[in-house]
Amino acid sequence: MKYFFLSAMGLPYLRSHTSADAYRHKCFVCGKCYKTRSKLNRHARYECGASRNQLQCWVCGRMFSRPDNLRQHECLHAMQRL
């Protein structure tokens, strides 16, 4: 448990990072839980949905399910060319 201070009053309060409420957004397809709705939406769109492994690297042909992972991978190819 960690102590945090309220900015307005300076009063300490406890916040648990491992409480049951922390992972309250659950995927209805596979059952994985996430802290935020945006993480659940990203999971549903790219990891659990129909677009899984639909993005392909134009250099080596490796498949990715998320565009941010593809961009990071393509940066590796760009660094190899230098």
TrEMBL record:
Keywords: Metal-binding, Zinc, Zinc-finger. InterPro entries: Znf_C2H2_sf (IPR036236), Znf_C2H2_type (IPR013087). SUPFAM superfamilies: beta-beta-alpha zinc fingers. PROSITE patterns: ZINC_FINGER_C2H2_1 (PS00028), ZINC_FINGER_C2H2_2 (PS50157). This is C2H2-type domain-containing protein. Pfam families: zf-C2H2. Residues 25-52, 55-82 form the C2H2-type domain. GO terms for molecular function: zinc ion binding.
